[in-house]
Design brief:
Elements (H helix, E strand, L loop, with lengths): L7 E6 L6 H5 L10 E3 L2 E3 L11 H13 L1 H6 L3 H11 L3 E5 L3 H4 L7 H19 L6 E3 L1 E2 L5 H13 L4 E4 L15 H10 L2 E5 L17 H22 L2 H4 L5 E4 L5 H17 L11 H8 E4 L7 H8 L4 E2 L11 H10 L5 H16 L4
Length: 364
Amino acid sequence: MTASHVIIDSDRHVIEPTDMWREYLPAELRARAPVQRGDELLFDGRSPFGNISALARRIVGAQAAARLDDLVSASHPGGQLRAMDRQGIDVAYLYPTYALYFAYVDGADPVLSAAIATAYNAWLHDYCHADPRRLQGVGLICRHDPRAMLAELDRIAAFGWRAVVMRPNPIAGRTLGDAAYEPFWTACEQRSIAVTFHEGTQARLPTAGADRFSTRFAQHACSHPMEQMMAFLSLLDAGVFQRHPALRVAFLEAGASWLPSWLWRLDELSYPHMKEEVAGNVERLPSAYFRRQCWISFEPSEPGLDVVIQRVGLDRLLFGSDYPHPDHGAQAIIDQLTGNQAASADELRRAVLLDNPQRLFSRA
């Protein structure tokens, strides 16, 4: 296989077996580990999911049942590797499923929340041992206690991993631009560890749309793109990009078609009229920061990729399959690259499937 045909999946998931938490959590916290009781998943005695109707639970359950083989496969490395072989995926960067909820319950015990992230990372490290070249771990960072984030980053760096993942939402009253996170951004930049943001609908924390909609239909439509839009803005407005020009950031599983209009609004309607207010934090057009240090993944059959490429460049796009979640579409995304007219098929495929993720996840 030549380098031009290598496919890197920048957003692929594991399914954490419920019984693994008791093995990987410290002994004093195992009584509070996530457990499965009938059809319900509980964490510290409560559901980790927020405001979801009984009907939506049944729909999600039916969707999961329809993909049960994939979900089981992703719970162990052998099944993951066989699925990658079927899909033609050479290297996968692996993200959590349930741990992204457990470690981010707003108002939860910060010690327990941080221990959840540490336990997940230890389990994932063992998972990736099956094939460390093809299975690349992305370390989970819990944001409840900013001081604990640096210790977890040290452990993740010791694994040799190249990226971390966190939610874009506010947590414990802090947005991503909060000054308490400044040492973390500094450490990521110095260690050349990429930061990726990944949302998940109906978590128990502040989420775009959750304050006004009760259906999963509406909350899912809002949460993924809108939280990522505000994540970029939070880092921009607080001067994180300005102070850390080598920090690499990716926005995943929210589509990319929102990006041109968002950058246009920031560039043309907000910044020219209010740049004095953010002087020192935002010293260039917002789109310039994105083009310099951000990446974004896109969805199957998503329209407008040519506009995204024109706005931020071909080198900013990532392929993420979202496997094994019900709405994943590895082959559909790969096929989409062939028919896009914004660049030649070969140029687009190589950039999205190989060159771009290599730059994002590089330790150089």
